[in-house]
Here is the input.
Amino acid sequence: MNLEIKKDLASNWFKMLQECICNSISELEKNNIKFKSITWKRNLKKDEGGGEYRILKDGKIFDKVGVNFSKVYGKFPKQFKKNILGAKKDPRFWASGISVVMHMKNPQIPAMHFNTRYICTTNDWFGGGMDVTPSKKDDNEKKEFHKILKRMCNRHNKKYYPKYKKWCDDYFYLKHRKEPRGIGGIFFDYKKENFEKDFKFVRDVGVTFQLIFQKIIKGKIKKKWTIKDKEMQYIKRGRYTEFNLLYDRGTKFGLQTGGNIEGILMSLPPLAKWK
Here is the structure.
């Protein structure tokens, strides 16, 4: 398949998924509050792509949720290209993706994160994943979350779930605190075995995330919480912030490739605390 066709298929899917996820979020909020939409360009002087990030704040369910779409291209900086597959000798790149971060008002509902992307250098590959970060332990929720992920992965390859779960556990780990960020999920990168099969899996990851976040929210939205619960949520958000600023690949990639600063940092919670 022609590479340009692959690019169009991937970026069109990410854009459509952004719209679908935003519609689902608006329905959960009963359309009482609207997303703020900001479009941006990577370079104001020449065409190097850009994107759109949408943010909803101070809802009845969401303290803050960001849904970011991007399609950018150009050349990697010299100090960055050596770290990217296929870019060492040729710094040109094309990248498109969607990322979603949800911070909830009710501390009984976990923070949730999802992203998928397609990157082209002299190689081309998919990456992405999803994970959940609760502030309160819920073994049943953890079990059900991983059950859904395993079932989804098994539709494509039974080796995926154990491999991508471990990758997620290893990746979303705060080394300086020696603790995991949350209850895990799946994480994958450099997925380039077969475009059609890989793209089918990536689409399934997106659809599954949309089902998961609605299921979790609807199951917990009426649960009562205390001031102590909220304080624990703020502390957990502090951990979330530490990870995203110290370790997150997406944050580093966006900053190094001239992405929109506000869009890149949309993952940060509106309020966090440290002891």
